[in-house]
Amino acid sequence: MARRYDSRTTTFSPEGRLYQVEYALEAINNASITIGIITSEGVILGADKVFISKLIDKANNFEKIYKIDKHIFCGVAGLNADANILINQSRLYTQRYLYNYNDVQPVSQLVVQICDIKQSYTQYGGLRPYGVSFLIAGYDVKEGYQLYHTDPSGNYSGWFATAIGTNNLTASSILKQVMDECIVSVSSFECKPADLCNFLTNRCFPAFMCTSSSHVIHFPISFPAKEWKKDMTLQDGLLLALKTLAKSTDSEVPKSEKIELAYLSNKDGELIQKYLTEKEIAELVKVYTEKYVKE
């Protein structure tokens, strides 16, 4: 039955689903990972590259991260051919805004314009959705550093740190604070909250529910391994980006030739948009190895 509804983008299935949009989302989930992180000193985009060859002109080849304007850049996951169309359109929007108003376009306004295009391709017949998601990062005076995620349906959302592409859930779990409930069984000593606090080294709150007969205590626990922090420096953000890319690709040490890294920062009122070279990434990997791998 579902086959009758697959071929047309604008036709809902009996369950109220648009299969072509879901297929486009699946194409993104199969693409290599791209992450974005906002820090106190700038916004960072990192990505895992697919195409690696000694014959590629690395100085003129950007597979996952693209400049849109001096204050906006973006990371992609999905079909690069589709991404190129929307990136060129984004550049056109920002230049038109600059020409008309003699000022840079607000980041959020550009995001809405791109999502309007994406949404229209899910509504009109004879078209297919764009098979690409964006992480659009930028800076403006009103909102400061910003990071937005857009998907093929035309939906968008703002983030402090997020990931798109394959293993994005793994990456997101590294970026966010983990809250859990822990059950500790105590059979070798008397159940005393003070002893437990010392035993768990500040991992618990003083809210215990203890049954002395079973010596099983339930309490909330906040793991100190909170990776993303709002006040983290740009250097810490770059190292976190490397760690997230390494963990999400099942690598202990990230390979500099497989990584794209870029950041946007505002230094003394001047915007700096930096795309790290392979040599610069290799130096950063050395710092990462000293901090995380040799612990």
TrEMBL record:
SUPFAM superfamilies attached to this UniProt entry: N-terminal nucleophile aminohydrolases (Ntn hydrolases)
Chain ranges of the Proteasome alpha-type subunits domain: 5-27
GO terms assigned for molecular function: hydrolase activity
The keyword Transcription belongs to this UniProt entry's keyword annotation: no
Key word Nucleus present: yes
UniProt entry keywords in alphabetical sequence: Cytoplasm, Hydrolase, Nucleus, Proteasome
Pfam families from the UniProt entry: Proteasome, Proteasome_A_N
Subunit relationships: The 26S proteasome consists of a 20S proteasome core and two 19S regulatory subunits.
Protein name: Proteasome subunit alpha type
Gene source species: Plasmodium knowlesi (strain H)
